[in-house]
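Weekly structure sync - notes
Attendees: PM, LS, DV (DV joined late)
Agenda: review two folding runs queued last week.

Item 1: First target. Sequence and structure tokens pasted below for the record.
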Amino acid sequence: MKKIFAAIAAAVLLAACNQPYQNPLESLDYDALNAQALEEYLSPVHPGVPGEVPFWNKFATKYIYAPVFEFEQVDGAANYCLSIPSGGESLFVCNNAPVIALSPIWNELPVGWIEATMQATGADGMAVGSPVALKFEKDNPFHGPYEPAPIGYRESAIKAAKALHDSPLGQSWTGGNKPDTTYFYNCYACKIWSGIAQTECFLAREVPEYHDAALAIARNACDGLIAIAQPEGAPLAFFPPTYYYGENNEISTSVLRFNVGKTMFLEATYAANALLDLYDLTKEEKYLDHALGIAKTYQRLQAEDGSWPVKVMFETGEPVNEARCLPADILMLANRLKVKYGVEGFDDMVAKGEKWMWDNTISGFHFDGQFEDVPIEDKVPYQNLTHCTAGDCVEYLMTKPQQTQKDLDACIEIARWAEDQFTRWHSEIEYEADALSAVDSVFSSPFVFEQYHWRNPVDASIAKVANNFMHIYHKTGDLLALAKAKALVDTLVKIQDPETGMMPTLPNSETKFSQDDIWANCVFYSINILMRMHRIATGE
């Protein structure tokens, strides 16, 4: 009997394998998905619990999902009521505790800015304390389908890589391992030089006629990173600096001036991954060895609680303050070394780092911005949230060797949060509009902005939120997540310069296709996400 069942199973598997691949993007039922989205928007995103889980939305101004607001306890209050004017009357939501969810009335509220008032009352129904005013934006819900990509995802990715390669920025690396100091963003060595190298490695793999030229640029950029890195034995051994001033300090900006002698601790991971990409192509041991040296420095400098600092002094490794970095990129580097290259010895570091990340970041949604071009001092928790650190958590949890249900549940909630706070499915705000605008300055393609303090579309932000949704789709089969990812990735293709293929970092900038506004690391990230959607569409 067992042999019979085994034969039947084998026949079913063979039949499935012989079936042509069905592109899931071509059979999305948008009527059903739009209805599903509206239903899901009634469920608040990671609401706080007074005294247990902090409320992350202290500085939030827009919502797609019904929010939950926390108010201060009022002496003598028996009830707390939030009133919102709507259509000549008021809608009310009340609770006997100073926590109010808008789920009961969310679908009745119009899209746009909403002014609300909370008034506490006593047991007799009389007002207690002063009214509290609230103002927030109810943002447009997902409503597909959106205008599709004009060309294929792989074609778009290759065009973007070729455009960066052929640009003056890319070609400036053909003469050696010194950067073009007339290009402003070369001051961010770890991000920009690594982005150049990784994009060239991609081009060398995917386009045979570019192989030799792309490989030469990748090698020069990586050799440049190694040349400016700290030597073995230094406190930050093998780390290239975040900030590069030029050999004669010819790059001088306000960003560099307030970071003299400092470096962002996390950003050496960019260099390590670029070196590993180049090693994959060349098998030259010096690139693997240097990346391993970076990982061992991270291991050596991990605090007992599993954490690392955000910013340190480049010569001494001493933290500039008490702020701790979100360590997902460090943990992913360690996992890459183990899974792909068989390097052992980082398991304890990863376990301690992951525990710290759960306890200090994920549990309370402390996804605070940690960017190299803004100070990290004088920021209170939740003041400048970003989907970037959140998306890094998703990437780590969904790509580590084994996932748990807890990991998946957290990633689903983080994906909802990144959509809620940073995604625009549709915008009528003029300064957010782009050349893609339809009539009346309406931005007709979805986009994502980077952080609370930079509320403008960014290509890598669009890609990162799309990546969240693709992870959810792959783990759960949720077609709404896939539809959201498709809408965002299609935007990447549409913002691309149709002639040169340049992928703009700032899609609504007047100089969006100028190399002066291109962050190479963002281009590379967008290329990766385009290729991921290509694989979904084709089954490759």
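Item 2: Second target, run right after the first with the same settings.
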Amino acid sequence: MLANLIQPGEISNAVWYLGIDFDTTGLSAVLLNRTTAQRYPLFWSNQLRINPEELQTVNPRLAVRSSAEAIFRLPAVTYSGQAANKLFVKMPVTPIIVGSLASSLANNQPGIFLENFKPYLNIGIPYYCPEHQEWEPQLQLPNQHVSLYWVRRTLQALLATLTPKSTLADSVMKVGAVGMAPETLGLAFKQLEGVILGYPAAWSDTYQLNLREAVLGAKLVQHPEQIFFLEDAIATLLTVLPTSPVEIPENDAQATEKFIPTPLSDWHGGTLGINGGATTTELALVEFPDDLKNLSHSDFRLWSLAYGSDAIAQDIFCQLLYPQMSETQLQQLSLHSNLELPLVGQPEQQKRDRLALLLQSSALGKALIKAAGYLNQILQHKEEFTLELGTDRWQVYRVDMETRVIEPFIQQLHQGLKTLMIETGLSEAKIQHVVCVGDAISGRLEKWIRDKLPDASIVEASNLSTNFWVAAGLANLPLYPQVLNRTQQQYSDYFLLSELLRAFPHTAGDAESRLYSLEEIMQQLERRGLNTAACYKRLVRLVEGELPSGLVPPLEADSRLAQSQENTHYFHLTSEPLFAQEGDPKESRQGYRYRLNPQQQERLRQYLEIVLSGTYQKLM
């Protein structure tokens, strides 16, 4: 038991922020007392007592479970009973079980079991379609169709564990904080000033909108403007910065020191952050200013690759296991000998999604892809290994994994680092620190870093602090507020589109006949109070017909989407642009002229109205 816990009476003047790291495999969180700059890692424990009638599809023998063991990373796994298979306009009554317990309850039971669902939230925005009387879009998952709406509700259930109710002794999934009494944590949750979430740099505003909606639905905070987003790679680096020049109480510091990474004593020179997650690998390069109060978002240069530990495991399967398979084994997996494999080390998302769907649809496929992930760890310590599944055997070698799988991945990182060094003007000799976090980080990758950056020190995380690394960096954001990308926070692509629609009130005849220059369109927006200079490039893309990514899901290009019925909204939104381009920019100083399409304007307006009718966010 930790002594000298912070007590409820000590928080009257505290300002609280919550950093939440939601990645493909799990959820971790760190609470920041902005007043003292002290951070408190959170943990969970199961206290489940469910009556069989409360969850009718659960085997009673599995329903009564209890575990007081602390979980420092809540698995992003959920299970909901059979009633969840139906489509509802409102949230069904059936409970959603979260964490590792969900895996046990879902065993051979009807209902919806979800894992690795984070990438789905970047596909589109769920909405209730009046014509079809169902939620759109629908996802094609192994052996089931699930609405994206339900996926977002699933995330909401995970986040709901971070509320005052979860600090109570009788809570099914109890949450606590290292160095803090439960009553104090409950009060801190009630007083949250803001929530900070991480995201991959290349992901769209659609992902942020979905996460913001889940946070609001879980009632962590009341207003959308209390939710902030920071790139994962930047959060990786903020973790190692001093929390504040203020003095931290000695007892609190001792209580959390083994959980929270130790700040760098000298942060001068270039610093490289590598965040290797399950679905993406992110790089951030920065030269910290002498006075960290001047650190801003523009000081960071970012690079993102849609390739992580999941893709590495898939490439290990493709390169090391698949070539050894017999025809019988391929038939069990519904594969064929001339399967078009994704290029090793490359995102190739469509091919990877199709292959993942095939492998996850059979027990053997699930076992093999899971084993491939283990092989990535085993072959870092062994020269060779024999994988045995039942009567099947595969012989694999470390040299094959490194040359066929890891080296192509490292070449991608090499090009990414080269790009960042050109952008920042930093040479290899000027990079003094490298911070590596994530499942995609391996011994071979660390060797590449030491060879490439021999003068840099590698900041290593302990097994425990790795759980909180990104969450701690996210919680640090209020201490370095200029690092927030304020323009992106204020002007999302969805907000800009809605403003563009509102800037041109429909007047019969006039809108269809008038031609606008780009300058005149910007003036219309400026009259509504927009700072067009801050988001000019994104506005131009919208005017030229590029809709926000995810507004219309990529139906034909994404194998994760089920196409059970033709969605007329999606069809009409992509059939015509909002503005028609006319003229020849070479013959006019003003460039293209733009003619508003009132019919498409009305389609977009109605669609956004339908989508936003069921959300907390209204894009105002």
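Discussion on item 2: Residues 491-613 form one domain.
Action: LS to circulate a short write-up before next sync.
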